[in-house]
Amino acid sequence: MERPDLSYAAYARDRLAGMPSPADPEAFSLAYHLLHLSYLVIADLESHIHRPRGWTLPGFRLMFKLKLLGPTQPARLAEISAMSRSAVTNAVNTLERDGLVERRPLPDDRRAIAIALTAAGEDAVQEAFTEQTRREQQWFATLDPEERATFTDLLIRVLNARPEGAG
User: Fold this and answer.
1) Three-state secondary structure readout of 9-65
2) N or C: which end of the chain has fewer CB within 10 A?
3) 117-143 confidence digits (pLDDT tens)
């Protein structure tokens, strides 16, 4: 049974193939499928793992970065998360309210702060990470290890060559 979302994509690509320039059916198909996959994975992870905990995927991503990096300044979190500083602040406010992160003054500059996981945050992010890893494995089980590596390498290549001003 063909999935309706994929049959629409094939239909749209075929329609674009008959259109004059600048229509680009290959670029459309690639972008459509990449965006569609991204939306589906995000919605799946949020509905199965993060929303039941009262989180969003961006909130989890911030906590996971803190798990790996340790206490980190908000501006650095924004930079490596492709999030605005205000989005990071909003996420940190929610996570702090829930007792998962805390703001700590930096020893060198008492006006500056770093965000750090609390003990409860460490436990919670580890538990969610375990569940998310299982779900990600299910999403990509159709690919063998070499295909996963190739897919990852291609995505990194596109990200490195992204258009100027695209984040």
Assistant:
1) HHHHHHHHHCCCCCCCHHHHHHHHHHHHHHHHHHHHHHHHHHHHHCCCHHHHHHHHH
2) N
3) 999 999 999 999 999 999 999 999 999
